[in-house]
Amino acid sequence: MLKEVIHEHKWDFCQLQINYLDWEVINAKELYEIADEAKVPVIVMEPLRGGGLCNLPEKAAQKLKADCPNDTQASFGLRWVTSKKRVFTILSGMSNLQQLKENIDTFTNFREFTQTEEKIAAEIAKIIQSQGAINCTACRYCMEVCPRGINIPAIFGLYNVYKSNDNGFMFNVNYEALKEDERADKCINCHLCSKNCPQGLDIPALLKQVEDTVKKVG
Ligand code: SF4
Ligand code: SF4
């Protein structure tokens, strides 16, 4: 679709979801290259994947710490995005003063991303993928249409934490802390949510997967 519309108008910019995990996972690389070829500047959304790249699985976090001790998880992700030459603005959500200060520091004392760091980012992305996490960015668009009020991003968030730390006990405890009406077993398989999901997730099937896992580890 992007390939089709990008040549139909003279665009000032396009907005794409780009970060070092989605580069391959949702083919952000291809979208970026289409914009780059058409010389359309890119505004980046989800540069840290809804905060997921600041909350790396243990193995990935350890690798980043060992290979890039001068970076935080956030600065590494933001520097990676900035290394893409067609990018001119990054929409970085911040939820407290500390994050704001960290972002200002990253861009005030900016360090260019190196080829070696590119390789490290690709390796970290592979580690994250190998954990089997659900590709949810917690945008909550699915929640706008779910007739049952299932707390989809919270459920997927808990599952992803479990996939990164393998702590079945805590997964179960936190899942049980969700309101009964918001849990995966209340899904009626209407599929309205999937139509609204920008990540193209088969949400009812994934909810079933989470529910089965909760039962297994419980
Ligand atoms: S399929 Fe389930 S989660 Fe999705 S909108 Fe319907 S009830 Fe909600
Ligand atoms: S719409 Fe998709 S990506 Fe967004 S919160 Fe729902 S499941 Fe996650």
Describe this structure as you would to a colleague.
- Helix 8 packs across helix 11 (about 205-215).
- This protein has about 220 residues and is mainly alpha-helical.
- It is globular and about 50 Å long.
- The chain is about 50% helix and about 5% strand.
- The model has no long low-confidence stretch (mean pLDDT about 95).
- A three-stranded parallel sheet has the order 1-2-3, with helices on one face.
- The chain folds into two domains: about 1-130, Alpha-Beta Barrel (TIM Barrel), CATH 3.20.20; about 140-215, no CATH class.
- It starts with a helix and ends with a helix.
- The structure holds iron/sulfur cluster (2 copies).
- One iron/sulfur cluster binds near residues 140, 153 and 197.
In short:
50% of the residues lie in helices and 6% in strands. It contains eleven helices and three strands. Strands 1-2-3 form a three-stranded parallel sheet, with helices on one face.
Mean pLDDT: 93
CATH C-level class of the largest domain: Alpha Beta
- Major beta sheet, strand line-up: 1-2-3
CATH topology heading of the largest domain: TIM Barrel
Q: What is the overall shape?
A: globular
